[in-house]
From TrEMBL:
It comes from Hucho hucho (huchen). Interacts with OPRM1. Interacts with palmitoyltransferase ZDHHC17/HIP14; the interaction leads to palmitoylation of GPM6A. SMART domains: PLP (SM00002). It is found in: Cell projection, Dendritic spine; Membrane. The chain crosses the membrane at residues 21-42, 82-104, 125-146, 210-231. This is Neuronal membrane glycoprotein M6-a.
Length: 267
């Protein structure tokens, strides 16, 4: 008898867990995890890759920071770092908004809190998210293309550095004079292979993160488009149900009126 009472006592908890699992928008959850992973990989590795680029420019290319009012390479890299901070914060918030939108499209939430998506406000929100996600998709495509440029450049330098020779006891990675740069007084440029290799792989990871963000945007577009299709079908079904209910009510009223008339005629 005690086992029966315990089973009954745990039954609502199990049903509640199953109901919570039914509420989760798994497609939006997967896209959000992929977006966060891609943005974190892009922002973290991109920031460290830019810092490594600054170190290489200052130590081996003798690039000095210009005055504040002058826009030089180092200042542009600092601006890119601030842009990375903004991208990380913006897409953290955007992922939360898309998750909330995904929760409101699930059947369990509609049953609990009403058909929010079928309202005019819900349809406008869905259309706005589709448009905004498509813009972000194009933006991430541009970011991916832009990130591939330093990867290509570092890959070429890294390939040259694989054929390292020894000149005056130093590891010769790159001699700018073979490209027509520098003069007789410019010594042979020697790069540390480890630092160049680390910066190159950080840019590769940043490129992979940007690609993951692009895939997440595509997944979000598929989810939002499917939700929009559901909204249209739900609106049509609701209108059909309203018309059907109205016609049935009119038929019921007509039959009631005729029944009353016949009853009055008999009496």
């Amino acid at each position: 008898m005690e086992e029966f009472n315990i089973t009954i006592g745990h039954l609502p908890i199990r049903l509640c867990c199953v109901k919570c699992l039914g509420v989760l928008p798994y497609a939006s959850l997967f896209a959000t995890i992929l977006l966060y992973a891609g943005v974190a990989l892009f922002c973290g590795c991109g920031h460290e890759a830019l810092s490594g680029t600054v170190t290489i420019l200052q130590n081996y290319f003798e690039v000095v920071r210009a005055p504040v009012e002058t826009l030089d390479v180092l200042t542009m890299i600092d601006i890119l770092k601030y842009v990375i901070y903004g991208v990380a914060a913006a897409f953290f918030v955007y992922g939360i908004l898309l998750m909330v939108e995904g929760f409101f499209t699930t059947g369990a939430i509609r049953d609990l809190y009403g058909d929010f998506k079928i309202t005019a406000c819900g349809r406008c929100v869905s259309a706005w998210f589709i448009m905004l996600t498509y813009i972000f998709f194009l933006a991430w495509l541009g970011v991916t293309a832009f990130t591939s440029l330093p990867v290509f450049m570092y890959f070429n330098i890294w390939t040259i550095c694989q054929n390292t020779t020894v000149v005056e006891g130093a590891n010769l990675c790159l001699d700018l004079r073979q490209f027509g740069k520098g003069g007789p007084g410019w010594p042979v440029l020697c790069l540390i292979v480890f630092q160049l290799d680390m910066t190159f792989h950080l840019f590769v990871c940043a490129l992979a993160g940007a690609g993951a963000a692009v895939i997440a945007m595509v997944h979000y577009l598929m989810v939002l488009s499917a939700n929009w299709a559901y909204v249209k079908d739900a609106c049509r079904m609701q209108k059909y149900e309203d018309i059907k209910s109205k016609e049935e009510q009119e038929l019921h009223d007509i039959h009631s009126t005729r029944s009353k008339e016949r009853l009055n005629a008999y009496t």
